[in-house]
Specification:
The protein has 146 residues and is mainly alpha-helical. Helices cover 58% and strands 10% of the residues. Helix 1 packs antiparallel against helix 5.
């Protein structure tokens, strides 16, 4: 785990840099598309969501959640991504929803720097960490006059 300083402007700048944002989200999409068919199935997205520990509610202590409630949560999230109701999530739908989620995070963070803990990510798929890295690279380039 690493401690970072983050505010909404960092996340908004990441989302606003279309080239970097799309590349990052597309890499995440490709990693989730386990069968390589160019779309995410309900099962593929659920597998990814399970790694987020969405149902952990007591500071690291897992609670028992009824299976029907778990299924309803994952189905609801999938439905948010599946904009055209095709039963799969394509790359554009994934980009659109990730943009919406990250901008909501930016709005929640506001403009005041906040110290947060991010889990280590050996695969480079943590989009908030990528936002921080982009800001650091821009700051370094500006300081060196490039």
């Amino acid at each position: 785990m690493g401690v970072v300083i983050l505010d909404g402007s960092t996340v908004r700048a990441f989302v606003g840099d279309e080239e970097v944002f799309n590349r990052s989200v597309d890499e995440r999409f490709a990693a989730l598309d386990l069968n390589g068919d160019g779309v995410l199935s309900r099962a593929e997205l659920r597998r990814a969501l399970e790694t987020f520990r969405l149902l952990e509610t007591h500071f690291g202590v897992d609670v028992v959640t009824p299976p029907a409630e778990v299924a309803a949560l994952y189905n609801s999230i999938f439905d948010q991504f599946d904009l055209d109701r095709s039963g799969t999530v394509d790359r554009d739908e994934f980009r659109s929803e990730m943009r919406r989620i990250l901008l909501a995070i930016a709005d929640g963070l506001g403009d005041f720097p906040l110290q947060i803990v991010l889990e280590d990510d050996d695969q480079g798929s943590n989009l908030l960490q990528q936002a921080i890295d982009l800001e650091a690279a821009k700051t370094k380039a500006a300081a060196s006059g490039k």
